Amino acid sequence: RQMCIRDSCKSIGGELNNKSFEGVEIDSLASNPDEATWDDIVFIYDKKYLKNYQNLKGKAFILPDAVKSSLPEIPLPIVWVKRPRLVLK
């Protein structure tokens, strides 16, 4: 079942990087970026995946606030969360 990224943001207490992405539909959450599909929202908390973020599959990403200033502008939906490990609980 698809879910709107706006609703995903609300359910995990995240902040979307751009309101124009609020209507994006996602299929599921991928907690392992290596297993993500192009229709997933991908949860990334390990910095090793951020080094090559351009090569990751995913329609949207959940990233920790702590890396916000170290990444360039990414033209995809990003949900910024303060406590990323709590998202998976």
In short:
Helices cover 18% and strands 25% of the residues.
Topology, please?
Elements: E1 3-4, H1 5-12, E2 15-16, E3 25-26, E4 28-30, E5 40-43, H2 47-50, E6 60-64, E7 78-81, H3 84-87
Parallel strand pairs: 4-5, 5-6, 6-7
Antiparallel strand pairs: 1-3, 2-7
Q: How is this structure best described in words?
A:
The protein has 89 residues and is of the alpha/beta class. The protein is built from 3 helices and 7 strands. The strands form 2 sheets. A 5-stranded mixed β-sheet has the order 2-7-6-5-4, with helices on one face. It has a two-stranded antiparallel sheet with strand order 1-3. Strand 5, helix 2 and strand 6 form a beta-alpha-beta unit. The two termini are 20 Å apart. The mean pLDDT is 86.
Topology, number of strands: 7
Biggest pleated sheet: 5 strands, mixed
Order of helices and strands: EHEEEEHEEH
User: How helix-rich are the residues, as a percent range?
Assistant: 10-25%
Overall geometry: globular
Helical stretch count?
3
What class would the helix/strand composition place it in?
alpha/beta
> What's the pLDDT, averaged over the residues?
86
Structural key phrases:
five-stranded mixed sheet, two-stranded antiparallel ribbon, alpha/beta, 89 residues, globular, 3 helices
